[in-house]
Write a structure and sequence with these properties.
Distance between the termini: 91 Å
Mean pLDDT: 85
Low-confidence stretches: 1-46
CATH architecture of one domain: Sandwich
Radius of gyration: 38 Å
Oligomer: single chain
Structural class: mainly beta
Helix content: under 10%
CATH topology of one domain: lipopolysaccharide transport protein A fold
């Protein structure tokens, strides 16, 4: 007997009821009904979204019940179902599937069960038992029964995991769950986390997302335990109502220290701009403040960042052809602990004693550049920054390089004016004008390039405001008088650039000689008295406004060479630089610099930069770094040595000797090991260290690392102390749901 495939089309409940008087007694009758349904479809319902197509090896009908057997396939919307047997009730519009039921929805989900029931009219589906696999995340969910209507799923008594279903390493069991297929959000109730078959944690409610869509909710918490701060708990809360902004709240508790919260507001106000605003507050406990002699009982501050790549046209409705931009990075805090307390991990925190805030704006065309820069310095070791000089603002105009006489004469103009402001003490406006005039040519078919530059420089300063007490004691009467400085000096340059290609590499050699000769200087008012004052007492207040450097007669020799392979990748870079001075009272030979960047093999690289002092017959500074990098191993070692040739003091050592190292190794597809070590050799002090590993599988990650880090705090006498933090971090991630990091911290002074 030949197999015959029948097509049966079902429509909405209304259409099916129009056929209730038809009787079906044999295969021929079924064929007639199918033909009749097809005709109806051709007339008006061919594109009905609720139609169902059934394919089977055998099909028969009795009264209003249709039986399909062997190799049953059902197509309904974006569902494709298969089963051993199927029964369709025309009167109720119910389709039942029996035996090894499989269902696939598009390319997103796979559903399995022994029994399935579909109500075409009510758009309901029922599976017993229920199994669903989300294709992209490979997360599966199983239960005793699953009910689906439209894109909403309800499952009773089951479990969920991202591991192998046969023996999952982790699973979450639940009494009930629901899933929204539209927003990809899953809710579990009475959830119990198991590692293998061992219960670990109980959640009355647990919700998670199956995609990366921004949505409001709780983020992964952070737990910790500290020897001096007690139990640490941070629970981030994420709020994302609109697609152009979000808000992250990070309340935290340190049981032996205090409590606080940090909030970050992020926004994208246009397609060319974005920014963020963070603020934080932490309240110390009285016992902790007294025991550690902290300067403040509360720590607070804010950080604001903003970037806009076309603010003039966007804000002022202009149609300028040039490019405009604004960049803001503004910070303020009452002390450095505002930074230290922002996270449970202080390893990557920058805790400098001075905080710089800046706002930069510019407008740029092919010929001209206009800039405005605001800089504000906050010294965290001072009770008040009223006497700190701020640059509010600096204005700049730059006219780009222009040429005359067939590109032989070049010139450009740069004008800068800065407002030096402070709340207490003298203030000033200082303006600089730079005009370099360059005459250039080449000889011997461009093998030799010659140039002469006449550098014209002018600076003017005007003062305002009152001097604070003691500011003018012992200073010249002209110290804060308006002044003018004029300078002209000469620069001669000779250089050659030679390149030759070989079979396996290309060699490039660059050699240059630059001779600088002073011209003439003229100074008036402030610029007559300030140099004398600052030569004998460089810490005098007036010297904060004086920035003129002497131009000395020198010759600078510079030699560099490059090697490139056939693909154009750099193999070697080598540079030698030497300065010769002809000014009396100064060493004739300056420090010679030797710089080398050598790619020894495809993976091995060495870098060295060394300065040698002839007068001392000693190395003044050297930096050495060697690195090996391939797809499995990364190893970097570096060493910095510096000699100031000055007598050491209690706060400033003569030598700097510092070593850094980083290591990571991917042993196989599961194990990765890593370590780092940074050590101050001169101070015999470990600055930071880390060692750990990460074990990763398809459905989970487990990591353990030990970390040491030195951080600064502000004491009651406005001095900085160093604290050594020792951490143990435990990281557990259940893919694709997420995870958490737990740490233990021990602190010593």
């Amino acid at each position: 007997m030949h197999k015959i495939w029948f097509i049966f089309l079902f429509f909405s409940l209304t259409l099916l009821r129009a056929d209730t008087n038809t009787t079906c007694d044999d295969d021929t009758t079924i064929t007639n009904i199918a033909t009749k349904t097809t005709l109806d479809a051709n007339n008006s319902i061919e594109n009905d979204p609720n139609k169902v197509e059934i394919y089977a090896t055998h099909m028969n009908a009795e009264n209003e019940i249709v039986h399909a057997n062997d190799d049953v396939i059902v197509v309904y919307k974006d569902y494709y179902l298969s089963a051993k047997d199927a029964v369709y009730d025309k009167k109720t519009g119910t389709l039942e599937l029996f035996g090894n039921v499989r269902a696939t929805q598009g390319d997103k989900y796979q559903l399995l069960g022994d029994y399935a029931k579909l109500n075409i009219a009510d758009k309901k589906r029922e599976f017993k038992p229920f199994y669903m696999l989300e294709q992209k995340s490979q997360l599966w969910l199983s239960g005793e029964q699953g009910n689906i209507k439209d894109k909403y799923y309800d499952v009773t008594t089951g479990m969920v995991s991202g591991c192998n279903p046969n023996k999952p390493l982790w699973k979450i069991k639940f009494s009930s769950s629901n899933y929204n297929g539209e927003n990809k959000w899953m809710n579990l109730y009475n959830a119990r986390l198991y590692i293998y078959d061992i219960p670990i944690f109980y959640f009355p409610y647990f919700g998670y997302s199956l995609d990366n869509t921004r949505r409001s909710g709780l983020l992964i918490p952070v737990f910790g335990l500290s020897s001096d701060e007690g139990f640490y708990y941070q629970q981030p809360i994420y709020i994302a109502v609109n697609n152009w902004w979000d808000l992250e709240l990070k309340p935290q508790l340190r049981t032996l220290r205090g409590f606080g919260s940090y909030e970050t507001f992020r926004f994208a106000d246009s397609n060319v701009s974005h920014g963020s605003f963070r603020t934080g507050y932490f309240q110390e406990s009285k016992n902790y403040v007294n025991y550690n002699s902290l300067a403040h009982k509360t720590h607070y501050g804010f950080d604001f960042k903003y970037e806009n790549r076309d603010f003039l046209n966007q804000w002022f409705g202009t149609d300028l052809s040039g490019q405009s931009g604004i960049y803001a990075n503004v910070s303020w805090m009452n002390d450095v602990d505002y930074i230290n307390l922002s996270t449970a991990d202080t390893i990557n925190n920058v805790t400098a004693n001075q905080v710089l805030s800046q706002v930069n704006m510019f407008y740029n065309t092919d010929n001209n550049y206009f800039g405005s820069y605001f800089k504000y310095y906050q010294n965290l070791l001072l009770e008040s920054n009223a006497q700190t000089i701020e640059k509010l603002p600096t204005l700049q105009y730059h006219n780009y390089l222009r040429t005359l006489l067939g590109d032989h004469l070049l010139y450009n103009v740069d004008l800068t004016s800065v407002h030096l402001y402070r709340e207490l003490g003298k203030k000033a406006v200082r303006s600089d004008l730079n005009i370099p005039l360059t005459l250039q040519t080449s000889l011997f078919d461009e093998y030799l390039n010659l140039s002469y530059q006449s550098q014209l420089f002018a600076e003017h300063i005007s003062f305002n405001g009152q001097a604070y007490t003691g500011q003018e004691v012992g200073q010249d009467a002209n110290a804060y008088k308006d002044g003018m400085f004029l300078r002209q000096y000469n620069v001669f340059n000779l250089n050659t650039n030679l390149t030759k290609a070989y079979d396996d590499f290309t060699h490039t050699v660059v050699f240059g000689v630059t001779y600088t000769r002073p011209g003439s200087d003229s100074n008036y008012g402030f610029y007559k008295s300030a140099p004398l004052e600052c030569e004998t007492n460089s810490t005098a207040d007036v010297c904060q406004f004086y920035t003129i450097n002497n131009v000395r007669e020198t010759t600078a020799l510079d030699f560099s060479q490059y090697l490139f392979d056939k693909e154009g990748e750099q193999i070697l870079y080598h540079r030698l630089a030497q300065q010769i001075s002809y000014t009396g009272g100064q060493s004739k030979l300056g420090e010679i610099e030797n710089e080398l960047d050598y790619k020894i093999t495809k993976n091995l690289k060495y870098y060295n930069d060394t300065f040698y002092d002839y007068d001392q017959n000693l190395i003044a500074k050297t930096l050495n770094s060697v690195s090996y990098i391939n797809q499995d191993l990364t190893l970097t070692l570096s060493y910095l040595y510096k000699d100031t040739f000055l007598a050491a003091t209690s706060t400033v050592p003569r030598f700097t000797k510092y070593m850094t190292s980083e290591f990571s190794y991917k042993y196989n597809e599961h194990y990765k090991y890593f370590a780092s070590f940074n050590y101050d050799i001169e101070a015999s002090k470990k600055k930071s260290a880390e060692i750990g590993f990460l074990y990763s599988k398809r459905c989970w990650d487990f990591g353990l690392r030990y970390v040491e880090n030195v951080r600064s705090v502000l004491n009651t006498d406005n001095t900085a102390s160093s604290y050594n933090d020792k951490y143990i971090f435990l990281t557990i991630t259940l893919k694709p749901i997420g995870g958490s990091e737990i740490n233990y911290k021990s602190t010593s002074n």
